[in-house]
Design goal:
The chain has 6 helices and no strands. The protein has about 140 residues and is mainly α. The chain has a domain at about 100-135. Helix 2 packs antiparallel against helix 4 (about 70-80) and helix 2 packs across helix 5. The chain is elongated.
């Protein structure tokens, strides 16, 4: 019985020393409040990075990068190392780019729409613009 008591004291001492040693090594956790603006800024930065990544995934952008001699993976690696300000500047440039049209196609589209409207109004008898349209 005496041996059992000595064994228990030894085990308890070892465990106590171990816990004291581990609690000295582990740093305590510090909790602070996070501002809503910080969370929104982080989310905006993540969304901006995703927008640039989607832009780099487009086939026409990849072809243009290859024409310039830049590998797509290299471009992604460069984007990953950009700061938040650089990413936001790049996203603003992407937003200002034309969406695939030009002024000539816009003018042609407007002319076709105007022609169709005038033909329809001529058929209905509201206007008399075109002589090749027979009236009722």
């Amino acid at each position: 019985m005496r041996r059992s008591r000595i064994f228990r004291k030894a085990v308890a001492s070892i465990i106590t020393v171990t816990f004291c040693f581990l609690s000295a090594i582990v740093a305590p956790a510090h909790a602070t409040l996070i501002d809503t603006a910080d969370i929104l800024t982080a989310q905006e930065n993540d969304m901006a990075r995703q927008k640039v990544a989607q832009f780099l995934n487009r086939q026409d952008v990849a072809q243009h990068l290859q024409a310039l001699g830049v590998d797509r993976e290299e471009a992604r690696a460069r984007v990953a190392t950009m700061t938040a300000d650089e990413i936001n500047l790049l996203v603003n440039k992407i937003d200002q780019l034309p969406a695939g049209g030009d002024v000539v196609s816009l003018l042609i589209g407007a002319a076709v729409i105007a022609f169709v409207v005038l033909v329809v109004t001529d058929i209905m008898g509201l206007t008399d613009v075109f002589t090749f349209i027979k009236k009722r």
